Amino acid sequence: MNTAMEILKNQLSPEHLDRLLVLKNEEVNQFVAYAIELCEPDSVWVGNDSDEDAAYCRQLSIDNREELPLAIDGHTVHFDGYYDQARKKEVTKYLVPSDVVLDKKLNQVEREQGLKEIRDLQKGAYKGRRMLVTFFCLGPTNSPFAIPCLQITDSAYVVHSEAMLYRRGYEEFKRQSSNPSFEFFKFRHATGQVDDRMTSVHYDKNRVYMDYTRNTVLSVNTQYAGNTVGLKKLALRLAICKADREGWLAEHMFVMRANGPKGRKTYLCGAYPSACGKTSTAMIPGENIVGDDLAYFRVIDGEFRAVNVEAGIFGIIQDVCAKGDPVIWDVLHAPGEVIFGNVLVKDGSPYWLGMGEEIPKTGANHVSPAWTEGMLGPDGKPTTPSHKNARYTVRMQDLENKDPDWDTPNGLPVGGIIYGGRDSDINVPVREAYSWAHGICTMGAMLESETTAATIGAEGVRSWNVMSNMDFLSMSVGKYLQNNLEFAKDIERPKVFGTNYFLKRDGQYLNGMLDKSAWVKWMELRVHGDVESLDAGYGMIPKYEDLKTIFKNTLNQAYTEQDYVEQFTVRIPELLGKLDRMEEIYATVGDTPEAMKEEMAAQRKRLEALKAEKGEYISPLDLA
Ligand code: SPV
Ligand code: MN
Q1: What is the DSSP letter of 395?
Q2: Does 111 have pLDDT greater than 60?
Q3: Cβ-based neighbour number of residue 491 at 10 Å
Q4: pLDDT-derived band of residue 323, with 50, 70 and 90 as boundaries?
Q5: Contacts with 82 (C-beta within 8 Å, 6 or more apart), sequence order
Q6: 3-state secondary structure of 231
Q7: Is 433 strand, coil or helix?
Q8: Residue 455 pLDDT more than 60?
Q9: Does domain 250-310+407-622 have CATH number 3.90.228.20?
Q10: What is the Cα–Cα distance from 62 to 81, expressed in whole angstroms?
Q11: CA 176 and chain centroid, separation
Q12: What's the mean pLDDT in 406-433?
């Protein structure tokens, strides 16, 4: 067997060898050498932070046909396989050492067995290909939040996506990697055998295995970014482990700046399950975006601070339209770097469901290069012109509504945390928790989202998704909640809010798409104690007069007392029903924190007392 150094010397040009060796890090060398030995690439390329290297990978992705150029300069489209359109939970597993017991709710495989399985699948997988070795950073560089990452892949699309979505990390490695306590995340992805559309032939052998004991994720036979782009959801699972060890938090949250009176800037972070209004809240007109998907929290100089882990957006494109999402719409129609994923392409232009324009009946999409309306998929099911999880990839720097401080190394002070669910008949549009523990337990830990017509399966089924982070938890729910409860306990913590944009009456939504602007303005004022609130038994809710003023000032809209009463009625039977469901669920969590049990019991007691005093459906006008 050759040593790592011999393998590197044999395979790398002197210039690229030097790029690795100046890092003086044995773990880097070993990881790269092992990938060469296992995957047997034709050649190996090591990137640094230069613009030339970024341009090289972008062009390689086009030359490889992983991306196809579109009519507008800088725009490309990437197609994932028909069966590879989203993250796949069944094949995403933790590799668990045989002497460790991981929570039973987590998908897992014994470490040695899982490693063998993935090694067999990756063996020789880079034959005929170029292995790309690249360096990026989670969070800002030169920052207490920074987690440097090493990505190995044979997909130039993966590297191009990372170059748009994350900060460059080679200089960060150089700065830190000779330090004996240096820790980094590493990812080895292999495309596997592909068809002429560059999508996996063996999609049924897709695997995403997390070796959390080594800060490593291995994936194979997949192209979808949620399974391949190491720094996105693969890293989130490792970050949750690292945060647990080190006493900070890694969350599936946006970060935004809400603009208050007299130029006041208030930063809000929000966790919303899919299709609950997350990106559109982060992009509210008149406010400023810091990030739309991932946040890290740390206490710095006695303050609760957050960063955007990313430097771009990998957003859902369905329903992005000129009126509802003007900022994104403009970026998607102007020259500049944009990757469209799984849209319909006709004559060099991308089309997607809900764009508010007529969609061609033929074109290239994720189903076929010659798709026609009515075409059935390989599974015999009807197909749509674009996939419902079709995406766009853009850079933060190209968004005109970005907060100028979005990249600041020490992060931004957080005024409020929002947990946004989706239900048609339970929660008021906005409410504020009594305390941090009340918010974490009854808003974050009880977050639910209802299935919609757009999702597979029955409509109106509620699914429980703790802090919207359920898919990424690398420890028990109880431990994760306990970490949230204890975080930053010695300092003043943000206020906690719950939102629900989806209340309905007779199948019709009670709120307009833009009403979330008003709820954000109310939360901003509450963070600073500028308006009063009413006790609704499960949190504090707005007073009518304040909302009336906010709707007028923010949306130039009349907000009637009738709207208010309907939207803010306290629905006790539904609220108690939700508590029943949650108590049942938490009885199955082995280590439910005591605080969680106490908060649920106290909530029940308050709601029962309110019911005895005022009835089952209580108008907000009847709350003292
Ligand atoms: C999500 O599904 O939460 C996303 C996209 O942000 S993915 O990369 O698939 O995780
Ligand atoms: Mn996400």
Answers
A1: E
A2: yes
A3: 11
A4: confident
A5: 199, 366, 367, 377, 378, 379
A6: helix
A7: coil
A8: no
A9: yes
A10: 17
A11: 27
A12: 98
Q: How far is the CA of 310 from the centre of ligand 2 (A)?
A: 11
Pocket probe for ligand 1: among 91, 164, 206, 293, the residue whose CB has the most ligand atoms within 8 Å is 293
Superfamily of domain 4-66+84-246 in the CATH hierarchy? Phosphoenolpyruvate Carboxykinase, domain 1 (3.40.449.10)
Question: For residue 40, is it left (φ>0), alpha (ψ between -120 and 50) or beta?
Answer: left
pLDDT at 620 over 80: yes
Instruction: List the chain domain ranges.
Output: 4-66+84-246, 250-310+407-622, 314-398
* 54/548 Cα distance (integer angstroms): 50
* Residue located nearest, by CA, to atom 5 of ligand 1: 226
Tokens of 502: 């989806």
Instruction: Check if 232 has its Cβ closer than 6 Å to any atom of ligand 1.
Output: yes
User: Could you say which DSSP state residue 230 is in?
Assistant: I
φ, ψ of residue 393 in degrees (nearest 5): -120, 120
Query: Which range has the worst mean pLDDT, 240-249, 383-392, 455-464?
Result: 455-464
What are 344's two structure tokens? Answer: 């319909």
Helix axis angle, 4-11 relative to 14-21, nearest 10°? 140
Ligand 1 atom closest to 468 (CA): 3
Query: pLDDT tens digits, residue range 480-518?
Result: 999 999 999 999 999 999 999 999 999 999 999 899 999
Q: What is the pLDDT of residue 164?
A: 98
> Would the CB of 472 count as within 6 Å of ligand 1?
no
The per-residue pLDDT for 274 is 86
Is the CB of 392 within 6 Å of ligand 1?
no
152, β-bridge pairs = 133, 188
Average pLDDT of span 33-37: 98
Query: Is 276 an active-site residue?
Result: yes
CATH architecture assignment, domain 314-398: Beta Complex (2.170)
β-pairing verdict for 185-190 and 216-220: parallel
Residue to substitute in 84, 87, 157 for testing ligand 1 pocket (most ligand atoms within 8 angstroms of CB): 87
Confidence of residue 457 (pLDDT cuts 50, 70, 90): low
Which residue's entry shows tokens 């069944």? 90
Which is the catalytic residue, given 269, 276, 321, 441?
Answer: 276
CA of 126 to the centre of ligand 1 (A): 26
Where residue 192 falls (left for φ over 0; alpha for ψ -120 to 50; beta otherwise) is left
φ and ψ at residue 428, rounded to 5 degrees: -65, 165
Residue pLDDT, tens place only, 274-288: 889 999 999 999 999
Beta-carbon contacts of residue 208 (< 8 Å; ≥ 6 apart): 88, 91, 92, 93, 217, 218, 219, 222, 227, 234
| CA dihedral of residues 453, 458, 460, 462 (deg, nearest 10) | -120
Provide the mean pLDDT of the chain.
96
CB 449 within 8 A of CB 499: no
**Residues 427, 443: contact at Cβ < 8 Å?**
no
Report the alpha-carbon angle 594-595-598, nearest 5.
Answer: 90
Q: Which residue shows structure tokens 């559309």?
A: 197
CA dist 26 and 32 (Å) reads: 10
Q: Is the pLDDT of residue 456 over 60?
A: no
* Beta-bridge partners for 204: none
Cβ(330)–Cβ(338) below 8 Å: no
CA distance 438 to 539: 9
| Residue pair 439/419 in contact by the 8 Å Cβ criterion | yes
Mean pLDDT of the 445-464 span: 79
Region 124-145: mean pLDDT is 98
